[in-house]
Each structure stands twice: as structure tokens, then as C-alpha cells.
Amino acid sequence: MMRLFRDALAFACFVLLCACVTPGGTGGAVTHFRDGQWWDGTRFVADDRFVRDGRFVAEDRATTMIDLGGAFVVPPLADGHAHGFDTPELARSQSADWLRDGIFTVLSLGGPVAELPAAHQALNGRPPSVLFAGAMLTSPGGHPIPYYEAPAIGLNWWRASPEERERIRASRLLEGNVYFALGSPADVRGRWPEIRATRPDFIKIVLDGGNGLARPVAIEAARLAHAEGLKVVAHVQTAADVETALLAEADLLAHAPDYDRLADPLPPEIVADIAARGIPVVPTFARELAMERWAPPAARRDEAQAMALRASHRARLRAMHAAGIALVAGADLNGLTALDELVYWQDIGAFDGSTLLAIATAGTLDQWAGLAERCGLSVGCSATFVIMNNNPAEDIAAFRAWSGAYSAGLALNSARLQAGAGGDALNYASQPKRLRSSPSRPPQPQ
Fold first, then answer.
1. Would you state the pLDDT for residue 446?
2. Which residue in 30, 80, 102, 300 could disulfide with 386, CB within 3.0 to 4.6 Å?
3. What are the CA-CA distances from residue 136 to residues 69, 162, 204, 233, 365 (Å)?
4. Nearest-CA neighbor of 133 among 186, 200, 78, 228?
């Protein structure tokens, strides 16, 4: 009798346990997102989604239900050319700017290595995910050494006299912290242990139309980086720089060549080579007209010149996209984000709305960085998305007014977006959006 009682009790416990497990087998709570317009990579589709354990799952018994009321749901944006992590305060404020624009992934293409631990601590594992190049590799006296060394010795590069500029060029206060000045392949090999000791997420080589690494030096730096599994981002300024980057087998091009002036397009064979190798390009076109606020009035473009530059940018964006090059938005200017770059592409008529949104949300940067697989908003994908009431395929600026955001199934709110904040809070979109402040001094293009 006792044995029968034990068996019956065990069976009852088993039945009770099964009743507590969510269908599908993992036991996690299921959230039903109802009545959304979900971006499938080319168009919006009216549908529902179910999320469990941070991923989209097939239709399941829901624990909670969120009615989207027909809102538009898209993957987040990424920024392929940023800086601004020089202090923990900047790390926090810049991160808030990116998140306000629906940007969840950022490449930081150079900054003080000494500040990286504090920047990581300020980010504290919250979105956006930031990958750091750390110290840039350039030539002795090359770009962007003067822009960093000037304030380090109490001068302003933009206002410096010829004698002061010579002092700035001779300064090496930030060597090994912001940059490594490398004059030969032997320099690269000799300093490689020091470069690796800074623990970069990837390597940035500066090719700047004769103001950066010489071709053999760039190739050697890329060879050593690739040998250790590190990807290489190449700052390019000219078509010759692109040729050097291809010889070095760079993995991403920071800037489109001659982004700051009217230029003949790259030779078709080079464009085809970039596309065939699957190398993403971060054009950084919007920054050029935005930077004119610092130029003397006599040096600014007139309306005809500005229109010509916009037309050049439009043609080059279309040509790169038509060739199959993966375009990644990036600003490279304090006060702007990748969304400002996308708005510029929209304003100059580079792409129709659906094509622009497809480019913006393709996940190219996340896949390039190994942070995510090509997935989107389908079953099995990470439940990471942005919700907005206005259609971003009609106006990409709709990202600036998102009404909800989720990272791996977790809702982002003001407490989660601010380092050190605790407790519950309203959804971040309900908070006033801080107007971006314009830098008080000219930018340091990098």
C-alpha cells in the first residue's frame, strides 16, 4: 500500500511539474506582441510575435500580452564611425544619444586607451554594444596626431601659428595612448606587443592621402592583426588609399574616398572588387556640409557648390549600392549619429524609403563584428527591436520618436539607459529628448 501511495504521489508531482512548464520546453515566460507591422527586410507585414528567453519563438501560450496597436517594428540601427568615449561622462551621454536614435551597435574608431576601462564601466553591459579600436595606427606626424596633441600641450590646432603647429607636430604626449606612430614595417613588428597590450577589439589603420601609413607599413600591420584574428578598419581619403586597403585585405572602409569634395568615382574594377570581397563602406557624407559652421564665411560653399556636392554624394551612394557594396551609416562628428547620416541620404534622394530602411536595418555591422547572425525579426532570432508609431520607410527620422525598444526581449527604459540608475521607470521614449549640443570648437575628423 505504501509503495502504491509513493508511486501515486510521484505521478501527481510529475503532472504538476509538466503543467508549470511553458509549451516548447524551456520553461521561460512568453510575451505575445500583438497587432504589429513587422519589417521583413523589404516591407512591413501585419503579424504577431511571441518572445521567450530573449528570442522569437513560434506561437506559444503567452504569459503576458502587449498590444502594439498597429505600430511599426524594425531592427535597431548601427553606427559604423564614432568617437566620443574620452571620459566616462562622454561615454554615458554619447550612449544616450545613440539609443535615442535607435542605435544599438557602435564602432568607436579611436580614442584614449587609458580611458577604455572607465568607458566600459560606464556602459556597464547596457546597449549600445560598443567595439573599440583604441589607439590608431598612423605615420609619424600623420593624421590625426595634430588634432590630439594640440590640446594636450594647451594649443588649438585650428588657431595655431606656423611656429605653434611645428610644436604640435613634434609633440608625442599621447603616443601609445591615442595613436602609434609607425614609420616602417620593422616599427610595426617591434611595437606589435605594445599595440596588442592595449587590447583593441579591432585595428584601425590610417591611410590619409599621404598623411597616414605608407603602403608597406599598412600591409604589415594588417597582416599581424589578421594573424591574431583581429579585423582591420582602414581610414581612407583617396582612391589610392582604397587600393592600399585592398592590398592590406582590410575588412571595412571608414569613409568613402574624397568624401569631402567633388570627385571622380572609383574605377569600376575597384568598386567591383570591394563588393566581391564583401567589404562594408561607411561613407560619412553628412559631416561635410555640417562642418561648414566652423569655416570662415569666405571659405564656405555657396548654394550651387553645396548642391553639386549633394549630387555627387547621391550618385556615389547609388553606384556603390548598385554594385552590391554593403553601406553602413556613420557620422564621425560629435553631435551627429548614424541616423543623421541616414536622414542626409534621404534628403538628397539617394534611395527610396524602403531601400533606405533595408540598408539601415540589414544588420551588416553586427554580422561584421560577429555580434549577431543574419536574422532579423524571425523565429529563432534575438528579440531586439524598436517600435515606432510613424512609418520609417516613409521617413527614416521616425527613429527619433520611437515608442518602445527591446534588447534580447528586455524592455529598455530610462533606468536601464543611464549608468548607475536603479529602480523602475517610464519607458525611455516618454522622457524628453535632449537636444544635441553642437561642439564649441571645430571637430577632429578621424
1. 58
2. 102
3. 47, 26, 5, 10, 20
4. 200
On whether the CB atoms of residues 132 and 111 are closer than 8 A, the answer is yes
Q: Is 267 helix (H, G, I), strand (E, B) or coil?
A: coil
- Report which DSSP code applies to 382: B
What is the radius of gyration, based on Cα positions, of the chain? 25
Contact 137, 178 (CB under 8 A): no
Sign for the CA dihedral angle at 144, 147, 150, 154 comes to negative
Distance (Å, whole) CA 255 – CA 286: 11
Place of cell 556636392: 309
Residue 222, CA distances (Å) to 205, 233, 365, 397 in order? 8, 9, 20, 37
| 257 contacts 250 by C-beta, under 8 angstroms | no
Segment-wise mean pLDDT, segments of 10 residues, the chain, 446 residues = 41 37 57 97 97 93 94 97 82 86 95 88 83 95 91 90 91 94 98 96 94 97 98 96 97 90 83 97 93 79 92 95 97 91 98 98 95 90 96 97 94 53 30 30 47
- What integer pLDDT is reported at residue 15 of this predicted model? 35
- At residue 71, what are phi and psi to the nearest 5 degrees? -70, 160
